C-alpha cells in the first residue's frame, strides 16, 4: 500500500512500514529508544511490535495506565522524570505505541523534553490511525476540558499496521468509525456512501478505507497545518461533541462516552444547525441522522444536561473573541467554517436529536 507524504514526514502502511522505522533508527544513530505504551498496548501490541524492531540500541519501555483520564499534565511530569532518570538526551527517540491518548501524550512529551526530541507514532486503535496520530497535534486535557494544553509538532513518521486492530473492542472500532464517517461528510461524498452498508466490507476493504481516510485528513492538514483556514473543517461535530464528551466525563451520574460516540452525536446536532441555516436539505439531514444512528447507540439527554453542555462551549479551542465557532456542512462532502449558532438553535438541535 502506497505511503502518504505529509508535512515533513511520511505515513507508511502495513508490515512493510517497519523497514522505514529501522532505516530511520540506523540513519540517525539514536542514543536510546524509549517506547511509550499503556497497560493494554504493553500486553497486546508490544509483543507483536518488538520483533520488527531491528537495533542494538538500548530500549526502554515506559508504561502508563490506560484511559482518557491519564491524558493530563501530571502524567507528562512522570514521563519526563522517567526519561531523565533513564538518561534520555537530545538524541533519544520516543516511539508512541498506542491509541490517541498515547500518541497525544507521547508527542507532547517528546516535543517539550530537552526542548524537543524525535518521536514516531504507531497507532494501535482505529481512531488513532485515522485521526489522532496524523496532523501534528499533540497535547493533554485540562481537567475534563479536551486538548486545552498542547503544541503542533510533526513526528518523524507514522506507521499504520491494521494487525493491531485484532484485539480492539468493538466499541473502540466504532469510535474510530465516527472520524471516518466525518471525513466523508466534510470532504468526499463518494467515500461517505461507502459506509451506508458496512456488511459488504471485508478486511481488505477496511485497509483501503483507512488509507483513504488518512489521505483525506492529510490533504486538508497539508494545506493548513496551524488551523487558520481549511483545517477547521476537521472540527465538524467536535464543537458540541467535545462539550458532550467533557460533560459526560466529569458527571458521575453519566456513563463516560468514547470520543467517537460523542462526536457522532455532535455531527447529528451540527447537521441540524446546518439544515436550519439552509446549508443542507432536510433529506440530507435525515440521511445523516439515520446513518449515524445505525452505528451509534442513541445517547439520552435530559433537560438538565443541556445548559451545562452549553456552558462548556466557551472553553472550545476554536473560539475567537469570546464567540463559539462552528464548522457546518454546506452539502454532503463540503463545509463552511467560522459559523455561529445561538443557544436557542442549539437547544432545538438537542430537541431534534431526542425525537
UniProtKB/TrEMBL annotation:
The keyword Cytoplasm does not apply. One of its GO terms (molecular function) is 3-dehydroquinate synthase activity. Its cofactor is Co(2+); Zn(2+); NAD(+). It comes from the Bacteria. Keywords: Cobalt, Lyase, Metal-binding, NAD, Nucleotide-binding, Zinc. Residues 62-174 form the 3-dehydroquinate synthase N-terminal domain. One of its GO terms (cellular component) is cytoplasm. The keyword NAD applies. Gene3D superfamilies: 3.40.50.1970, Dehydroquinate synthase-like - alpha domain. Its EC number is 4.2.3.4. Pfam families: DHQ_synthase (PF01761), DHQS_C (PF24621). Residues 176-319 form the 3-dehydroquinate synthase C-terminal domain. Transmembrane segments: none annotated. Catalyzes the conversion of 3-deoxy-D-arabino-heptulosonate 7-phosphate (DAHP) to dehydroquinate (DHQ). NCBIfam families: aroB. This is 3-dehydroquinate synthase. It comes from Flavobacterium capsici. The gene is aroB.
Amino acid at each position: 500500500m502506497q505511503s502518504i507524504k505529509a508535512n515533513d514526514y511520511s505515513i507508511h502502511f502495513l508490515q512493510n512500514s517497519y523497514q522505514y522505522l529501522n532505516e530511520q533508527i540506523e540513519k540517525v544513530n539514536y542514543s536510546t529508544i524509549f517506547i511509550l505504551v499503556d497497560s493494554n498496548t504493553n500486553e497486546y501490541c508490544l509483543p507483536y511490535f518488538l520483533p520488527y524492531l531491528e537495533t542494538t540500541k538500548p530500549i526502554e519501555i515506559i508504561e502508563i495506565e490506560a484511559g482518557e483520564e491519564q491524558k493530563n499534565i501530571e502524567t507528562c511530569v512522570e514521563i519526563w522524570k522517567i526519561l531523565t532518570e533513564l538518561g534520555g538526551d537530545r538524541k533519544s527517540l520516543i516511539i508512541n505505541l498506542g491509541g490517541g491518548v498515547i500518541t497525544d501524550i507521547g508527542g507532547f512529551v517528546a516535543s517539550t523534553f530537552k526542548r524537543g526530541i524525535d518521536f514516531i507514532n504507531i497507532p494501535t486503535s482505529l481512531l488513532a490511525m485515522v485521526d489522532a496520530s496524523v496532523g501534528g497535534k499533540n497535547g493533554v486535557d485540562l481537567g475534563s476540558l479536551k486538548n486545552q494544553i498542547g503544541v503542533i509538532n510533526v513526528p518523524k513518521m507514522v506507521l499504520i499496521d491494521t494487525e493491531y486492530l485484532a484485539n480492539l473492542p468493538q466499541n473502540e472500532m466504532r469510535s474510530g468509525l465516527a472520524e471516518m464517517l466525518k471525513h466523508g461528510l466534510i470532504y468526499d461524498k463518494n467515500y461517505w456512501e461507502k459506509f451506508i452498508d458496512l456488511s459488504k466490507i471485508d478486511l481488505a476493504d477496511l485497509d483501503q478505507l483507512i488509507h483513504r481516510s488518512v489521505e483525506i485528513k492529510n490533504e486538508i492538514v497539508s494545506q493548513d497545518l496551524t488551523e487558520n483556514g481549511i483545517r477547521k473543517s476537521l472540527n465538524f461535530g467536535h464543537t458540541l461533541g467535545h462539550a458532550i464528551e467533557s460533560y459526560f466525563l466529569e458527571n458521575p451520574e453519566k456513563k463516560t462516552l468514547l470520543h467517537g460516540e460523542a462526536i457522532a452525536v455532535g455531527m447529528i446536532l451540527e447537521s441540524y444547525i446546518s439544515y436550519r441555516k439552509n446549508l443542507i436539505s432536510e433529506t440530507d439531514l435525515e440521511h445523516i441522522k439515520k446513518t449515524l444512528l445505525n452505528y451509534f447507540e442513541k445517547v439520552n439527554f435530559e433537560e438538565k444536561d443541556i445548559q451545562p453542555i452549553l456552558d462548556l462551549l466557551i472553553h472550545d479551542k476554536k473560539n475567537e473573541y469570546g464567540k463559539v465557532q462552528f464548522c457546518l456542512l454546506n452539502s454532503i462532502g463540503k463545509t463552511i467554517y467560522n459559523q455561529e449558532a445561538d443557544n436557542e438553535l442549539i437547544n432545538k438541535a438537542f430537541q431534534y436529536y431526542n425525537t
